């Protein structure tokens, strides 16, 4: 049995007319009749009842149509997936990240992948966590770097690292020596992520402030962590940020105060669409987890 036998059979099963099926297949009617006869002889069952006026599927033919259709669809899916794997090595590879994690490490990741796959065209997108989840589910990005929680049956994820939170403030305007003094910030201006942009992160910051006995006076909002740091640096407010930023965002005007005592942490995840794990993704995840 060859693939053409299945395609000829399925076309005739749809058309139930030898002339129309032959036209669809761009062949003449006699070769189509021979191919169908060969298929029936190989299977050992009559698939069609035909006379001078009508062509109908037998019960065996109806069953075979369903199973042959599955085989063709599975083959098409495997072909598409194979093409995607190939394109990931010599085509486009899309990485989404949240602004609070774009670090030297990610730059090194790009260099690492470029060395392994010199023909790979890497696309980087800054995307909030909740939008990354939707994009991953739809297969629009190949690797997502985002913050938990991640609730989806269509995505596979691994924890990259766990991060605590830190208060960041301008040391020219505010003097803080320990977390015991944080309560006096209740009248200070706060700079936070927009709630619609990063709802879970925003709520975590509110929860931290509540643990220190006050509700923050949020005046300025930004959807980019670098903008938040610069606003704090210029004395326009204080903020609470992931502690990992203290390693890469160092300025003489600002200090960080770790808030691990709150018991609140945030997981940064490496996420991929389920069942679409490629060689490039394997290399990227292994590099980041190493």
From TrEMBL:
PROSITE patterns assigned to the protein according to its UniProt record, in alphabetical order: HTH_LYSR
Parts forming coiled coils: none
DNA-binding keyword on record: yes
Annotated HTH lysR-type domain residues: 1-58
InterPro entries: LysR_HTH_N, LysR_subst-bd, WH-like_DNA-bd_sf, WH_DNA-bd_sf
Molecular function GO terms recorded: DNA binding; DNA-binding transcription factor activity
Assigned protein family: Belongs to the LysR transcriptional regulatory family.
Protein's recorded name: LysR family transcriptional regulator
